[in-house]
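Hi C.,

You asked whether I'd gotten around to modeling the 636-residue construct. I have! Everything is below, sequence then structure, no commentary in between.
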Amino acid sequence: MQKQCVGRLWLAHLVFGSVSVFGQQEPVSLSMVTVRASAPERFLAGQKLERVDSAALQQFRFQNLSDLLAFQTPLVFKNYGGGQISTVSFRGTSPNHTAVLWNGVNVNQPMTGQTDFSGLPALGFDQVSVQYGSGGSVVGSDAVGGSLLLRSLPRYAETGVRASVGYGEASFQNRQMQASVQFAGRPTVAGQIAGKTTLYNHQFNNRYPYRERGYYFMEPSNAWQRGLMQDFFWRNRRNGQWSINAWLTDYAVTVAPADTLGRERTRTQGYRLLASYEADRWTVRAGWLRDVLDYAKADFSKPSHSLTDRLLTRLERELVVSRGGVSLWQVRVGAEVVHYRTRVDGYGGQLITENRADVYALARYQTGRLTASANFRQGFVMGFNPPPTPSLGIDYTLIQRDRSRLSARASVGRSYRVPTLNERYWKNLGNPDLRPEHGLNAEVGLSARMQPTAAWLVTVDGTAYRNRIDDWTYWNPDRGYRVENLQQVLARGFELATTATYTQSRWRVGGRLSYGLTRSSQLRAYDVYAQNIVGKQLPYVPVHTTSAMAYTQYRQWRLTLLTQLQSRRYSTFDNTQYLPGIVLTDLMVSVPVRVGGLRLQVQGQVNNLFDALILNVKQNAMPGRNYALNVVLHTR
């Protein structure tokens, strides 16, 4: 039934979308709608913010965002294998300390407080930005270590219909299929429409030809991922814009599928629907998000069932103070109310409801070489008292010349995280008396951009940070894994990234090198028996991370080499056991092919080029050298 609904929605979009695009009359001049950058980006002066290049999103369109970000950022991922869960660590924090925003709405799973990055397809988003450090004043709960900002954008200027269909075949009998249709109508008296539809279906059979690698077990598993992403935009002649965004996901992972007694299956479904209207500096948004999780062991016919619904409403107003036609002050005030309804077998099966609210004021000042921001947010949660989260940030251009620029930045801000539903309501182990975690983050950075010749472009960026988190929640094994506020953690470190690009005629050569030093340790013991873990590096957080990327491109031909290095990662709190360091190298080749009037893009990929032994999780080895061949057909 679900497949039929998805198919009907896609067909309806193609039919009605085509009528709207091709049934237009003579072109009409339409005043432009001011589509402003999302609030998390505009009001984060002084903080490190990286935007993923659109070319990289296309190059990784058959992979998820964890595959892409692991090679382009100092983020650390704990990956359980093909199609299985992949969680992130921002600057030495846990996966619960990362906010994932889809079109401005936090989509972290409310039961676990995390997002599985293996379920974030790179092809589904028009813009991906990575925000480092606490962003509680702008983003809200969970943004303790950082945030991932995912956006869908209208492309009004690209009138007509563009479609692409892709198929990928990989080692271990893994395969992927995807289709995308993007459209924009011509301006009419009524307005203009634009939109995009994306479908994907990934199957990971994981038929490894070996049971172990280097005396480490290869855990048998299989997985599948399916999804539909639908974006629709309409702007009218009164400078207003409607948008409707939908994202449906369905994916399942089965561990040890051949073992009828020990096998486990986790199936996760997500339903996300947002509707927004923006006009005259007002923004109104309403949304419905449903998260479904089914877990079964041995007998899959009677899984443990979890369902959570979120209904949200947001109202924002922006004020602008200008001088000489230039905006000096931008102030955005808003409020959001979210209603939770959850029924989880692990909570006892009863219906649990909760209301949350946020009020915030975000201010940005910009003039000449200076950009500054001052933000404030206060959260309200039933039964809790989240702390206020103010922040201050500044960017200042120290040197501005024709071919060079040097700027400095600094910021300080508070953050918080409301305990997850599992942490509060799980039978016997949950703790409704938990306090929200709260953190204080400070960072400084320098950024340089140089263009010594017309062909060369070089950038360098360095950041030092310090982030202290109090009341860190912990499933305490000494109390039978009951959840408690037991830890105070300090994460501090340094990040350095540099890029270089050379362009000459039809040739383009470039590269990126990034390094991260992360010290993340517990400052305060939670009982007398834990003194030996104070000052020790947190588990699965490497002290040193390095990633490198180099490419050569001629017209549409592209050769890319990617390398990721990590130092040893401790697997215990007392640092007595550890996993060896990682050296992982991938090679990608992309070749354009013309077949009549059709345009094909053929991509070959060699993963783990040097057949290294990779241990992302204790006693569980990752695959050796493997291959993938992807083909994408473009209509335009």
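If it helps when you're writing up: The first helix runs from residue 2 to 22.

Thanks,
B.
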